[in-house]
Every structure is written in C-alpha cells, then in structure tokens.
Design goal:
Blueprint: E1 4-7, H1 17-29, E2 34-38, H2 47-56, E3 60-67, H3 78-97, E4 102-110, H4 120-139, E5 143-147, H5 160-170, E6 175-180, H6 181-187, H7 191-197, E7 202-207, H8 222-231, E8 238-240, H9 250-256, H10 266-282
Helix pairs in contact: 1-2, 3-4, 4-5, 7-8
This protein binds manganese (II) ion.
Length: 283
C-alpha cells in the first residue's frame, strides 16, 4: 500500500508556526498519511513547532524545495554552487530534525526559467555536490529525490531519461528519481513509458493535473500513468500537488506562474484528490 501525501501549498502559503498547525491539521483531517513541507529559507523555519504538530496529528512529513539562482548547485561559478550546497545542507538538517525520510524537488540546480542551457562544468558541480549531500543524508536515513521538471523550471533535468543518467553518475543508493505527472505531461513522449523505464530508480511521485488544478479536470492521462505505477509495483509515497491563487505563496506563485484560481476550497480539493488517487492505485 502506497502512503498518500499532500503538498502543504494546497492549504497554506508559508510555514510559520500558525501555517504549520493549519496545514498539518488539515492534511490529517483529509485522510493523508504524509504532508510535504516546502523548505524555503530553511534557517527561518521552526523545526520544533513542525515536529510537535506532526506528532500531535500523527502524520509523516516529506520535504521539498527548489534552489534560488544565487545558490544554483549547477552553476559554473564554484562559489555559487557552494552556496547551493550550503542551502541544501541546511534543508537536509531541517528534514532530519523533523524526522522526514525524504528531501526532494529541484535540489540539483536553480529553480526557475534559465536563459541558457546548463554548462558542462555546472553539471559536473551539481553531480559532485549531490554526491556529497547524499553521503550526509545517508547518515540521517534521508533519501534525496531529483524532481524532473519542465523546461521553464530547470535547464538541467527535464526528462526521466536525463535524470536517470544524472543519478547513475552520482552513484549513491539514496538518490532517487522523483516524477511529477504535470511536468511529464509537458516533456515526455509517453509518461507511462517513462515510468516503466524508470522502474528501479523511481522513489517519489507527484500527482498533478495539466493546469495544476483538481485531478480529473485536465488533460493528463491518469489511467495509463497509474497502470504503469501498478505494473512496476511502485510502493513509495504518492503525493497530490496542486496550486491555486486561492492560497498564495509569493515565492512559489511567481516561479510556478500561478496567476489564477484553479479551485476555491482547499479541503474539498484535497479530499477529492485523495479519493481519486486511492481509487486509481487500486486499478
Ligand atoms: Mn512536483
């Protein structure tokens, strides 16, 4: 049985102690096993308040982030890549402190629209840094997930094939592929085939609709995607990710280009998504 998760951005736009309380309570009330916490500016987050809320509502956490441009792990400039490694290490320490076993997202480079392709030296910087952070993560029992995202959000890993090649270069057992149906719908020739080819490396899945709104109301072919997940006996976490201007995170809204309401009621949207995913996983 896969654990079912929900991204905190369905409920809250930040991670103040009050946001944390709201999001964790709602995720639990909607029947999720896991809440995914965005770890932006990790030094400013309260690990204590987060841990207490997780324990109170008996729910697990995963963590995700996208690196800022001044901390681009895949920068050619070694000092910018080093800033990325410090940022990612701080996020890892937050994840370990709150008992999260997973840290994923655009953790391998800057998150956002680039104006040129990654350079060979930048890519080498990212591979080496991910390898070092993975060693530290292994000491805490944390898996790193490299989320494959569309071309407007990364210039490094846009397809499952690219991410598998990157992971093979890193060569660490706790670095896995993170796929997201919203991004695959933009970049893959065939999302189901991308899942089948990724069998051995797939460690985390985001379920998102083509417009990032309610599941089943867009153009993602969920039936073939869930069939592929069943075929590879995928047993890890499956997390609902959705964004609406109804819940505003200034940083995420601007990077992800969330300019309109795709839904109005977070609780209703989350509960419908949970049922949708649970049914789809059964086949
Ligand atoms: Mn995602």
């Amino acid at each position: 049985m896969n654990k079912l998760g929900v991204h905190a951005a369905v409920f809250v736009g930040g991670w103040s102690p009050a946001d944390c309380e709201t999001a964790v309570a709602k995720a639990s009330a909607c029947g999720f096993d896991v809440i995914e916490i965005p770890v932006f500016e990790p030094e400013n987050l309260s690990a204590t308040a987060t841990l207490q809320a997780l324990q109170r509502y008996k729910i697990e956490a995963t963590c995700s982030l996208g690196l800022p441009f001044d901390a681009d792990l895949a920068a050619q400039d070694a000092s910018v890549s080093a800033a990325g490694e410090r940022y990612l290490t701080a996020a890892l320490d937050f994840a370990a402190t709150i008992g999260s076993s997973y840290l994923g997202g655009v953790i391998y480079g800057a998150f956002g629209k680039h104006d040129k392709p990654v350079s060979p030296a930048g890519r080498r910087n990212a591979v080496a840094a991910i390898r070092r952070v993975a060693a530290r993560a292994a000491d805490h029992g944390v898996t790193l997930g490299l989320e494959t995202v569309n071309r407007y959000e990364s210039n490094l890993l846009n397809t499952a094939e690219q991410t598998r090649a990157f992971i093979e270069e890193v060569d660490a057992a706790n670095v896995r592929l993170h796929l997201d149906t919203y991004h695959m719908n933009i970049e893959e020739h065939d999302a189901a085939d991308a899942i089948l080819q990724s069998n051995h490396l797939l460690g985390y899945v985001h379920i998102g609709e083509s417009h990032r709104g309610p599941l089943g109301t867009g153009t993602v072919d969920f039936s073939s995607i869930f069939e592929a997940l069943r075929e590879i006996h995928y047993e890890e976490i499956v997390t609902f990710e959705s964004f609406s201007s109804r819940v505003v995170s200034p940083a995420l809204s601007s990077t992800l280009a969330i300019w309109r309401d795709t839904w109005d009621d977070p609780d209703e949207t989350a509960m419908a998504a949970r049922d949708f995913i649970a049914e789809a996983l059964k086949g």
